[in-house]
Design brief:
single chain, mainly beta, 5-stranded mixed sheet, 10 helices, 771 residues
Length: 771
C-alpha cells in the first residue's frame, strides 16, 4: 500500500512538472512588431517598415533569428520579401498598379516562429487605394455576425453561477451595439446583456446541464438579427471565479458542484511569457478553494491563471491583464507652433531612459483618409501579440479609468485556453519543432528523394548556384530526413536557383526546393475601403501628388552590401583571355595558357588535374569545375564552349573546403555576361527564382536651406515628410531631429516607436501643422 501511494504521488508530481514545463516553456519564442510609415496608401507609392524582433519572454532584442519575412496578404499573398534582422531590420514594398482597392494585412514572422501557431505572427491592417482602376458600386450584402460566448474559466458547470463573456462583431471584426437576452427551451428570459465596448461584455448566468439555452441578439431598433445556442453545461466539474479584493490582491476561487472532490488537492498556477509567478496547492473544502496573491507580483501585460485537479489535468483557465504603471513615452516638443511650407522643422525629444535605445520615426500627413497611428510597440507586445484573433483598438486598454478596467476584463474573458493546448502538452505533442532558426543568414531548404522508393535519402551531396558575374555557389549534404540546407550569407541579388547533384546521383535521386515563406494564407476577403463621395477630392489630389513624386522626387539611395569575393577567395592564378592571343578552341586555351591545370583525355572524355601549389604534385581527384558559378561535371561540355564567351579563368591550386565538402582545387570560368551556363545546361529546366535579402533604402528628404532651394520650382508634394527606421539616441545631452516640410499644408502626425537593449518599449506621438 505504501509503495502504491508513493507511485501515485510520484505520478502526480510528474504531471505537475509537465504542467509547469508548459507554463515555463523550454522552447525559445520570438515576437515581431512592425512599424509602418503610415496606414493608408495609393498604388504607385512605397510602403516603408521597420521590424522589431524580440525575445517573447522579456522583450529584449532577439539574438536567435537573423532574418525576418514580411508579406502583404489578403485573400492571397501579393508581395513577399526578406529583411536582415541585424542590418537595420527595415525594408519597403513598392505597391504595384495591379493591386485592387481594399484592406490588406502586412504580416511579419521568422522561420523559427513558423514552428508555432501562425495566429501569433505580426498582423496589421492597412488600406490601399488604386486611383487607376474604375470605381465600382457594390450592393451591400446582408450583415453577418460572429457571435461567441465564453464562460469564465472555460466551461459552464451545472448549478454554478458563471460570469459569461460575449463578443459580437461584424464581418470586419468591428464590435456592434445591440441588446441580448438568454432564454430557455420554453422561451423564458433568464438573463439580459449588452456590450460595454467593441461588442464585448459579460453577464451572470446559472445553467443546468440537462437544459438547452439560447441567446437572442436584437439591434437597437428591436429587430432580431441573430440567435445562437449557448455552450452546454458540464454535469460536474470546477468553475473559476476571478475577483479583485480591492486591496491590491486578486482572488481566484475554484468552485465545484459535487462533494466527490471534497478533500482533493487543486493547484493554481500563474505565469506570464514563460515566467512562473505563483504556484500553490489547496484542498477542496465545502466544494471550494480560494487562492489570493498580490497584483504587484504579476508581469506587465497578460498573465495566465490555470487550475489543475489532483490528476494534473487542467480544469479552468483565465487571463488577467496588468496595465503598465510606468509608461516609456517619448515626449516630442516642436520648436514652433506652426511651420511654413518648405521650412525647417525641429523636434526636441525627451526620452525617459536612453540606454541602448534605437527608435524609428515617421512624420506623415493626417487627414480623413490617414488618421493618426495608435498601434504602438507597447500595446502590441504587451497585449495584442499574446491574444489570438483580432483585437479592436488595442490602445484603448492602456488608458486609465474604471470603464477601461471593466472593458479590459471583458476582453480577457473572451480569450481563454488560447496560447497552449494542455492535452497535447501532457501527450508530449504540443509543438513540433521542424524548422531550426536562421541564426546567420537566410536558408534555402530542399529535400532529396529516392526516385525508386520515393523516400528521403541521407548523405547525398547537392550543389546550389545562382549564375552571374557575381555568382553564388553553395554545397551541402542531406541529413537523415533527406533535407539539405544552403546558407545564403550576404546574398542580395535576384536570380534563378540551379540545384545540381552529381551525374551518378542525379539518375538515382530527385531534389525539390521548399518554399521559405509560410504556407498559411491569410483568410481575408479583400474588404472594401468604405470610401464615400466626400473623399473624392482628397483622393484625386493624392493621386496627382503621387504621380508628381514619381516623376520629380529623387530616387531613394541604396547601400551596397553584397560581397563580390567568390567562395574560394583570391585565386592562385587568374587569366584574362583578352590579354592572350585568342584560340578558337577551348582545349588549346587550357593547354597553352593555364599552367596549373593538366588536361587529359581518355576514351574520348576530357579530365582535369591540378598541380598542388604546396607540393607541386598532381591531385589524384578531379577539381571542382565551375561555369559562372554552376558546377559542370562533364569536361567535354566545357571543351565544346566558344572561348570568345569567356572573359577570365580562375584557378585555385590547393585543397578548398566548403562546409564539410572538400575539393582538390577549383577551375572557375567567368563569362562576359554571366550567362554562359545556358550553353551547357540548356533551357529545358525551369529553375525557381530566388530573391536575396532586401537592400536597405534611404528615404529622400530635400534640404531647403539656401535661397535657391526655397525658390526651386520643382513640385514637392511629399505627404511623408520624414522616415527614419534607425535613429540611435545618445546616452546623454539634448537630442533633436530636423527635416523640411513640403508644399502640402495641413496637419502631420509624428509617430515614434523604440526598443532598448534591456527590453523597454518606447513610443511617442505628436501633431504638427504646416500652413
Amino acid at each position: 500500500m505504501q509503495k502504491f501511494i508513493f507511485i501515485w504521488m510520484l505520478l502526480f508530481f510528474l504531471l505537475m512538472q509537465v504542467a509547469t514545463a508548459q507554463i515555463i516553456p523550454s522552447v525559445y519564442q520570438e515576437k515581431v512588431f512592425l512599424h509602418t510609415d503610415k496606414s493608408f496608401y495609393l498604388t504607385g507609392e512605397d510602403l516603408y517598415f521597420k521590424a522589431y524582433l524580440v525575445n517573447a519572454a522579456d522583450h529584449r532584442p532577439s539574438d536567435l533569428s537573423k532574418v525576418i519575412y514580411v508579406e502583404l496578404v489578403s485573400d492571397k499573398v501579393y508581395l513577399q520579401t526578406r529583411i536582415s534582422a541585424v542590418e537595420g531590420s527595415n525594408g519597403s514594398f513598392f505597391l504595384p498598379a495591379d493591386l485592387h482597392s481594399g484592406k490588406y494585412v502586412v504580416r511579419a514572422y521568422t522561420r523559427w516562429m513558423r514552428n508555432f501557431d501562425e495566429a501569433f505572427f505580426f498582423q496589421k491592417t492597412i488600406a490601399i487605394f488604386n486611383p487607376f482602376e474604375p470605381a465600382s458600386v457594390t450592393t451591400p450584402a446582408a450583415e453577418h455576425y460572429d457571435i461567441q460566448f465564453f464562460p469564465e474559466g472555460g466551461q459552464f458547470v451545472s448549478s454554478i453561477e458563471s460570469k459569461t463573456g460575449f463578443r459580437v462583431v461584424n464581418e470586419d471584426g468591428q464590435g456592434i451595439d445591440f441588446r441580448g437576452i438568454v432564454v430557455n427551451a420554453v422561451n423564458d428570459t433568464l438573463a439580459t446583456f449588452q456590450p460595454l465596448k467593441f461588442g464585448i461584455g459579460h453577464f451572470y448566468f446559472t445553467p443546468v446541464s440537462s437544459n438547452t439555452y439560447f441567446a437572442q441578439i436584437y439591434d437597437l431598433n428591436g429587430k432580431l438579427i441573430a440567435k445562437q445556442t449557448l455552450p452546454p453545461a458540464a454535469g460536474k466539474g470546477y468553475a473559476l471565479k476571478l475577483s479583485d479584493t480591492g486591496n491590491g490582491r486578486l482572488s481566484v476561487r475554484a468552485n465545484s458542484n459535487t462533494p466527490d472532490y471534497e478533500g482533493q488537492d487543486i493547484v493554481c498556477l500563474v505565469h506570464s511569457r514563460g515566467k512562473m509567478i505563483f504556484r500553490e496547492n489547496r484542498k477542496i473544502i465545502s466544494q471550494q478553494a480560494e487562492f489570493v496573491f498580490p497584483v504587484s507580483q504579476l508581469e506587465d501585460g497578460i498573465n495566465h491563471i490555470t487550475l489543475f485537479d489532483n490528476s494534473g489535468n487542467p480544469v479552468a483557465e483565465r487571463l488577467y491583464f496588468k496595465r503598465p504603471e510606468a509608461s516609456q513615452e517619448i515626449k516630442i516638443r516642436p520648436d514652433q507652433e506652426m511651420y511654413p511650407q518648405r521650412s525647417k522643422i525641429q523636434l526636441d525629444l525627451q526620452v525617459p531612459d536612453r540606454q541602448g535605445l534605437n527608435i524609428s520615426m515617421a512624420v506623415y500627413h493626417a487627414d480623413d483618409l490617414q488618421s493618426p497611428e495608435k498601434l504602438n510597440i507597447a500595446n502590441y507586445l504587451l497585449l495584442t501579440s499574446d491574444l489570438k484573433g483580432y483585437v479592436e483598438s488595442p490602445w484603448y486598454y492602456f488608458e486609465k479609468d474604471s470603464q477601461v478596467n471593466a472593458a479590459t476584463d471583458n476582453l480577457m474573458l473572451t480569450h481563454g485556453w488560447r496560447r497552449f493546448e494542455w492535452k497535447k502538452v501532457q501527450e508530449g505533442s504540443q509543438e513540433k519543432i521542424s524548422l531550426f532558426p536562421e541564426y546567420v543568414a537566410p536558408l534555402v531548404e530542399a529535400e532529396i528523394i529516392s526516385r525508386e522508393t520515393q523516400k528521403p535519402a541521407a548523405g547525398i551531396t547537392a550543389y546550389l548556384s545562382m549564375a552571374g558575374k557575381n555568382f553564388v555557389f553553395k554545397g551541402s549534404q542531406s541529413d537523415s530526413l533527406g533535407k539539405v540546407y544552403f546558407e545564403m550569407h550576404r546574398v542580395y541579388q535576384k536570380g534563378e536557383l540551379i540545384v545540381r547533384l552529381t551525374p551518378r546521383d542525379d539518375s538515382l535521386y530527385q531534389i525539390r526546393i521548399l518554399d521559405p515563406f509560410s504556407p498559411v494564407v491569410y483568410p481575408g476577403v479583400n474588404t472594401p475601403l468604405g470610401l464615400s463621395l466626400a473623399h473624392k477630392a482628397q483622393l484625386e489630389d493624392r493621386s496627382v501628388y503621387m504621380q508628381a513624386r514619381r516623376v520629380y522626387q529623387k530616387e531613394s539611395k541604396t547601400k551596397p552590401q553584397a560581397d563580390s569575393l567568390h567562395f574560394y577567395g583570391i585565386p592562385d592564378e587568374k587569366y584574362y583571355l583578352d590579354d592572350y592571343t585568342r584560340f578558337p578552341v577551348m582545349e588549346e586555351v587550357m593547354r597553352e595558357y593555364i599552367r596549373g591545370v593538366m588536361v587529359r583525355k581518355a576514351e574520348g572524355k576530357f579530365q582535369y588535374r591540378i598541380f598542388d601549389l604546396n607540393t607541386g604534385e598532381l591531385f589524384e581527384e578531379e577539381p571542382l569545375v565551375l561555369l559562372d558559378g554552376v558546377p559542370v561535371f562533364d569536361i567535354n561540355k566545357i571543351m565544346a564552349l566558344d572561348p570568345f564567351l569567356i572573359k577570365s579563368i580562375e584557378v585555385k591550386r590547393r585543397k578548398e573546403f566548403l562546409g564539410r565538402l572538400g575539393f582538390s582545387g577549383v577551375v572557375s570560368y567567368l563569362s562576359y555576361e554571366g550567362n554562359a551556363i545556358s550553353n551547357v545546361l540548356g533551357d529545358k529546366e525551369a529553375w525557381p527564382e530566388y530573391q536575396g535579402l532586401q537592400v536597405q533604402r534611404v528615404y529622400f528628404t530635400p534640404q531647403y536651406e539656401a535661397g535657391a532651394d526655397l525658390n526651386n520650382r520643382l513640385p514637392d508634394f511629399r505627404d511623408l515628410l520624414y522616415w527614419n527606421p534607425n535613429i540611435e539616441i545618445p546616452s546623454s545631452g539634448a537630442f533633436s531631429i530636423s527635416f523640411y516640410s513640403s508644399s502640402l499644408s495641413g496637419k502631420y502626425n509624428v509617430y515614434i516607436n523604440g526598443l532598448s537593449e534591456d527590453g523597454k518599449l518606447f513610443h511617442g506621438s505628436q501633431m504638427i501643422e504646416v500652413k
